[in-house]
From TrEMBL:
Name this protein carries in UniProt: YitT family protein
NAD listed as a keyword: no
Source organism: Metabacillus litoralis
Keywords carried by this UniProt record: Membrane, Transmembrane, Transmembrane helix
Record field: transmembrane: 5-23, 43-65, 72-93, 105-123, 143-165, 171-191
Coiled-coil residues: none
Keyword match Transferase: no
């Protein structure tokens, strides 16, 4: 159980760090992150607060889609991701800005890798999924869409909202949208093996 909790917490913490790096790169954040930044800029509250608010909204939306009850345990995942994003964005990297393009590119790539590692780690634990990931699963279950189509629908909806809220959309957004899935799948293999090895000790 200790290994499971450790993977869960470290995974979400690394995921938050990755999200922060993609935002700080200023080349375009992921669709949902761009939405959260846009809401923070237009309305107020921290980016992490909007991660939590949007997560709660999606939690009830997912329940409506599958005609079931909200997965309230997902609140823990939502709160931890929101806290992690604010910790890295407002405490650790608040005054850190990348001026040169090469550093921005490294920040974007590093952010994608850290998000992928974080997601791969926390998914091993089988704890409640991030409502964004659950949205893909809900659309798949209700409408029998494949995961790629379900994921794309969620990303496009977030992207449209982020566009109207003038969130940080750019080339990085496109790169994240198309690369994050394959990278998570690639990283998931060694992470899964390591997790299984630690559980057997």
């Amino acid at each position: 159980m200790k290994i499971r909790i450790l993977f869960y917490l470290i995974g979400l913490f690394l995921m938050g760090f990755g999200v922060t790096l993609t935002i700080k790169a200023d080349l375009g954040a992921g669709a949902w992150d761009a939405l959260n930044v846009g809401l923070s800029t237009k309305i107020g509250l921290t980016v992490g607060s909007w991660v939590i608010i949007i997560g709660i909204v999606l939690m009830f939306l997912n329940a409506f889609i599958v005609r079931g009850k909200p997965k309230l345990l997902a609140l823990a995942t939502i709160l931890l991701i929101g806290f992690s994003v604010d910790f890295w964005l407002l405490v650790v990297l608040e005054n850190f800005q990348f001026e040169l393009l090469i550093y921005k590119v490294f920040s974007l790539i590093g952010g994608i890798v850290f998000i992928a590692i974080g997601v791969a780690m926390y998914l091993q634990t089988k704890f409640p999924a991030n409502p964004i990931d659950q949205l893909m699963i809900s659309l798949h279950e209700r409408f029998h869409l494949n995961f790629m189509v379900s994921k794309t629908i969620g990303e496009v909806c977030a992207l449209i909202l982020a566009f109207f809220l003038q969130g940080p959309i750019g080339i990085g957004t496109i790169i994240i949208t198309f690369l994050i899935g394959p990278i998570i799948q690639y990283i998931n293999i060694p992470v899964s093996k390591r997790y299984e090895m630690l559980l057997k000790r």
